[in-house]
Amino acid sequence: MRKILSLILTLAMALSICSFAAAETAGMPELNTTDEITITFMTWDDFELTQALADAFHELHPNITVEIIQTTTADCTGTLINLAAENNLPDVYFWLDLDPLLANKMMLDITPYIENDEEAQTKLYPSLRRVGYVDGKRCYFMAGENLPAIIYLDQAVFEKLNREMPAQDWHWEDLLNLIETMTDASQGIWSYNYFMGPVTLGPIALTDNVTGEFGWDGEDYHFESGWVEMVEKQFEYARLGYQAIQGSDAYLAVVPDDLWPGESGHIAIQMDAYWTLNNIYTQPAALERGLKMVPYNSPIGEDTENGGQFSWLDMVSLSPTCEHPREAYEVAKFMTWGKDGWLVRAQQYPILTNEAGNPIYRVPGSLPMIQDEEVNAAMAAIMPALTDANGNVYWDDWAGFFAAIENPVTFGGRTIPGFNTFITDYYHGSDYAGNTGIEAAISAGAIDPYDYTDTLNTAGRQYYDDAMAVFYSVYGTAE
Amino acid sequence: MAKKTTYRPKLTKRRLKEWGWGYLFILPWVVGVSIFFLYAMVQSLQFSFYNLLLSGGIQLQPLANPFDNFASVFVKEINFPVTLANFAIGLVLQLPIIIAFSLIIALLLNSKIRARSFFRMIFFLPVIIATGPVMSQLTAQGVASVPMVSQNTLLTVLSGLPEFIYEPINNLFSQLILILWNSGIQILIFLAGLQKVPSTLYEAAKIDGASGWESFWKITLPTVRPMILLNSIYTIVTLATGGTNEIIELIYSVTYAATKGYSYGAAMSWIYTLIVGVILLIAFLLLREKEPKHQDEAVYRRDVEAAKTLAKLQAKNARHRRQRQRREGRAAK
Questions:
Q1: Residue A349 domain boundaries
Q2: Are A13 and A105 contained in the same domain?
Q3: Burial class (CB in 10 A: 0-12, 13-18, 19+), A419
Q4: Domain identity same for A14 and A135
């Protein structure tokens, strides 16, 4: 069965390459197919997968070799700064913080490639098509890895409370309604717990044409949209006892061993990340506790036009000192969001093993960044059916899950110039009625968030302008 | 009037050989520091007087005023003084706890107990395994806080205090296990000091009627006093440069900020280095043992100290004798 699947995927990949080659627009420079070229590629992704992708790329382009430089997420910014100081940046590299790359000339303008790449213009999720346009005109980076926020609903708890599970194409309002109605103290059930809560996910879900955190639309923040309600609700939910507070007396009375609420079996909704599925919810310990967590995409507001879904997106850029930018772009695309690469991934995820011979992935390490039926079908085929402790399948609607991914939007620090400084110095660092940080002040009841939306919008824009002034001084202005 | 003599060690062949071995042992450290640390420090000082741009290598752009970056830290960086004050308060709270804990554990590990080597290994083990990622994971999972102290209860108790006092105390409790767990090196240093105390001193004191408590204050503590200074310096440096230090995190964040950058971060690092230097100097002045200027003075001081101790012990023995006689007299009546 596995061989047949591999064969089908290989065939599909080969066909897609042929069709895509024909679909490339005329403006795209030709790939060098004769000279021996080596492209250095820095990543923190699993080495086995990266090597398999590099090998697959080399098979397609025999004159291009991908040399992998392994790093970690913790070291990547420091490593990049050091490599740039030595004038030795990798041709293609993953990164996490935008600001140091803006303040130093470390990214190549890839506008000519991405704008002439039909696949980028038609297949990438809409929010990812213009994610790297720093000044709105020139593109300096692309999405490299997609790890979406996932809302896990515990089917076992829903059954216990005799409640119906929502559909995969649910809305933000449905989520809030569940949070507000699922708590049942008599049965020791809390509505929810979060890793990334409503104040992070809500403004993205509820703002029209959003491209970043706090309602950022590419030019301005919109704290009046989503944030102001969600920041109040998040604290209100904690106050009203909808949220399980680990270590609290109420929680300890129900969960004496003070387990993380998300795996206690006493939570209806866990707002978390994609990787938790692999790390916890498909592990025997969670299944033995009776958890039947169903993954849902972060929902978008019912009346929101082009709202977003929060995701941990890692970014990828090309070095300005890269000698073969056209080829480097092709490598970057194949190794990150490109369809061909994803068909290889779909082949590799089930068969990759570590040195001990054990499978590396029970669940694929990340999710696609393109809207493509073929890729979605290939991925849905390798996603595991979720089973309970007895091996009975309780959920297997991966097709519905993939269909509900619409608009991934990530951290401000990865897409909005000056965001990190704004958050550190102003949002969390300034004094608000005697409290350090606005959320602390709201939590203490010292201020009304509605009075601060304009101030936050203006301050955020000022930090953006300051960072952009640095960007223009380093990269110049668009012609 | 007696002529003052200055003590100078004679340069014998043996002494020269000893010095040679000493320098040989510290040579790897000297080489390592020179290559990997000193050069980088000098370079960061240079960067702090320029605007650094990475574009095809390092480009240093002159500033209007070379001290602009230093001035900006005090003018623009609103979080710096607050974070610095939190660090200082945290240091004052944590330092005595670490030193006292290390000394107590070292005393226990120096006593004659079964499986002493095993326990010594247990207390030093965290130093080896406590790498950054391990500690981050443990902290994230709540291992760093005291299990029986509910954070919520603590919050209620401390809620009346001003934030600048409340924060460090709260941090102290939330990291107490971690702090104590990081005391392996200090324990080892104290242990080395304790093992150098001749057992004959304790035996002589015991014969003269000294209790264990008295022996600790009169023999153990004066002997390990230089180790207290050494451990204090070590602990201050560790706390000031540790991965979880808020100022280090602040320096990282400004270094990577678009509007601040590497040179600004370098200036902030140097300001911080000078402040830590001042703290170290204060600790040194407070905890140093005043060395006698002359050997005669040292001998005199030692004799006076010994005479005082002897007189106290004799007085104590006499007091015990009188008490015993009174008790026996009352019993006879």
A1: 2-147+311-382
A2: yes
A3: buried
A4: yes
**Tokens representing residue A107 in the block:** 């990214």
The pLDDT score that the predictor gives to residue B6 is 59
pLDDT (tens digit, 9 = 90+) per residue, A154-168? 999 999 999 999 999
Structure tokens at A55: 């090998």
How many domains does one find in chain A? 2
**Nearest-CA residue of chain B relative to A429?**
B79
Crossing angle for the helix pair B79-110 and B184-195, to the nearest 10 degrees = 40
Confidence of residue B230 (pLDDT cuts 50, 70, 90): very high
Cα A38 to Cα A64: distance, rounded to the nearest angstrom: 6
In the three-class reduction of DSSP (H, G, I as helix; E, B as strand; rest coil), residue B147 is classed as coil
Cβ of A99 within 8 Å of Cβ of B257? The answer is yes
Indicate whether A129 and A183 sit together in one domain: no
Nearest to A336 by CA among A364, A308, A370: A370
Cα B127 from Cα B136, distance rounded (Å): 14
A86 and A198 inside one domain: no
Residue at A254 is within a domain? yes
The residue of chain B with its CA nearest to that of A424 is: B253
Cα–Cα distance between B91 and A13 in angstroms, integer?
A: 60
DSSP A97-115: -SHHHHHTT-----HHHHT
Judged by DSSP in three states, B245 sits in coil
Question: Are A203 and A230 contacting, i.e. CB atoms less than 8 angstroms apart?
Answer: yes
- Pair A236, A164 in one domain: yes
pLDDT of residue A399: 92
Contacts of B49 (CB under 8 A, 6+ apart): B63, B66, B67, B69, B263
Residues B76-117 pLDDT 10s = 887 788 888 888 888 888 888 889 888 998 998 888 888 888
Best residue of B256, B260, B263, B264 to probe chain A, by most A CBs closer than 10 Å? B256
CB contact under 8 A, A77 and B133: no
Does residue A326 sit in the same domain as residue A294?
no
Closest CA of chain A from B65, distance in Å:
19
- The DSSP letter of residue A300 is B
Q: Which residues of A touch B (CB under 8 A)?
A: 74, 77, 81, 84-87, 97-100, 102-106, 247-249, 320-321, 417-418, 420-421, 424-425, 429-430, 436, 463, 466-467, 470-471, 474
Name residues whose C-beta falls within 8 Å of residue B307's C-beta, 6 or more positions apart in sequence.
Answer: none
| Residue count of chain B | 333
| Contact across the interface for A105 and B262, Cβ inside 8 Å | no
CA distance A211 to B126: 45
Calpha distance B155→A6 (Å, rounded): 58
ipTM of the complex model: 0.78
Q: Does residue A162 share a domain with residue A122?
A: no
User: What gap in Å lies between CA B241 and CA B259, rounded to an integer?
Assistant: 25
Which residue stretches of chain B are H helix? 13-32, 39-48, 68-76, 79-110, 116-129, 132-140, 151-158, 163-174, 176-181, 184-195, 199-207, 212-215, 221-241, 246-255, 261-287, 295-332
